[in-house]
Amino acid sequence: MLPGWIDTELTQGARDQVPGLDERVLARTPAGRWGAPSDLAGIAVFLAGSGSDFITGTAIPVDGGYSIS
Question: Taking 80 as the threshold, does the pLDDT of residue 69 lie above it?
Answer without folding.
Answer: no
